[in-house]
Amino acid sequence: MYSFKLKRAGHRKLASIGLLTLTLILSACGNNNSANSTGGAANAPAASADATTAPASEAPAATTAPAVEKTVTDAMGHKVTVPANPQRVLASYLEDYLVTLGVTPVAQWSVTNGVQDYLADELKDVPTISFDLPLEAVMGFAPDFHIVQSESSVQNGLYDQLNKIAPTYVLGDEMSKDWRKSLLKIGELLNKSAEAEQAIAAYDQKAADAKAKISTVIGDDSVAILWLIKKNFYIVDETRSSGAVVYGDLGLKLPNLVTEIPSASRATWNPISLEKLAELTADHIFLVNSDKTEGSEILNSPIWKGIPAVKAGNVHEFASNHSWLYSGAIANSKTIDDVLNSLVK
């Protein structure tokens, strides 16, 4: 039977780092929404290849108004003064957005057993900072602007302490559910709105092209996305994380077990028993396997092997360092690549 709704608030107290990482990702990685929920961004006009530049004597070069300091209100109601041109930005677990906008953070999110590996190339020279933002570490990086993803990350007076180090803007859980809105907001804060719009337009075009290719290959086949960690399975919600990419952006058909999750208790990744998985009728399974070194014996069980997609050899497996557990233009683009490589031969 299902056991739903993993809570965000307790993840800092878990003794096991494996469960710590699990809870962080469950609560944070699902910042997603389908292309249909974002209006206008995908229609941003591209520069014309036929445009010509007039000689300086005929038309003076256009000048861009200098950036100015601005005061904005964040998700928690704080009035935040944003520097005119932030140079040392800290945005733990929001690095996908910064990299997309061409901004290198002063530090990158980490837990004891790793970082966001799918950004390894882009962040290879960026030092790490613990997920819980130790104040001494934050001060050591001397940020001039700080973006925090969720309200729960700055409880018990932490916001005030962080805000004394640098102006701190809380994006908020509600906005974080939609990576497009999050990217546009971060772009606005960092004077990168044009870059944000262009990135969304490029992603939406890539998703549309991939959707057309995939639909000609698998037709009406249904697809499930599972995560195996610590010998436990989780099934993704269709509106969050890689679920929003596969079901929303690529338009693939939902399997029976996802549609049966009670709406009142949905989480980004929903715990599901092996016995319940025996009822899964999906034609394809995308499996994120975090149990490569331990626990994979569950994949040899008769129940698992009896699932139709498993019997048909339609399990597409990825390690946990892939993009499927995360969200953002870069993560989602890499997930599309994985789906194409798996389904379009």
UniProtKB/TrEMBL annotation:
Point out the signal peptide segment. 1-28
Where in or outside the cell? Cell envelope
Mind telling me which InterPro entries this protein's record contains? ABC_transptr_periplasmic_BD (IPR002491), Bact_iron-sidero_bind (IPR051313)
Q: Which is one Gene Ontology cellular component term of this protein?
A: outer membrane-bounded periplasmic space
Q: What Pfam families does the database record attribute to this sequence?
A: Peripla_BP_2 (PF01497)
Identify the CDD domains for this entry: FeuA
Q: What is its main location?
A: other
Fe/B12 periplasmic-binding domain mapped to chain residues:
86-345
* Recorded coiled-coil stretches: 186-213
Name the family.
Belongs to the bacterial solute-binding protein 8 family.
Q: What is this protein called?
A: Iron-hydroxamate ABC transporter substrate-binding protein
